[in-house]
Amino acid sequence: MDQNVGITDKRVRTALGAVSGIVSLASLAGVVPLPGIASLALGIAALIMLGTAATGFCGLYALLGVDTCPASTGGSR
């Protein structure tokens, strides 16, 4: 799989994933009053965001033809 997530995109995904994960865990601990389904959705979103930031590959970007990675398509990324 070629990387299709650029450095700025990775940073945004990491920040949003961390915040979503913290809010999800705070909700599970009872600190933030959210319904259980919202906590679960935030947790899943956090895992997806952090996973795509770590691997540099986003499946949705691949389907839509989006590439924020500045490396050339012929070289290694």
From TrEMBL:
<dbReference type="Pfam" id="PF11127">
    <property type="entry name" value="YgaP-like_TM"/>
</dbReference>
<keyword id="KW-1133">Transmembrane helix</keyword>
<feature type="transmembrane region" description="Helical">
    <location>
        <begin position="12"/>
        <end position="34"/>
    </location>
</feature>
<protein>
    <submittedName>
        <fullName>DUF2892 domain-containing protein</fullName>
    </submittedName>
</protein>
<keyword id="KW-0472">Membrane</keyword>
<feature type="domain" description="Inner membrane protein YgaP-like transmembrane">
    <location>
        <begin position="1"/>
        <end position="71"/>
    </location>
</feature>
<dbReference type="InterPro" id="IPR021309">
    <property type="entry name" value="YgaP-like_TM"/>
</dbReference>
<keyword id="KW-0812">Transmembrane</keyword>
<feature type="transmembrane region" description="Helical">
    <location>
        <begin position="40"/>
        <end position="64"/>
    </location>
</feature>
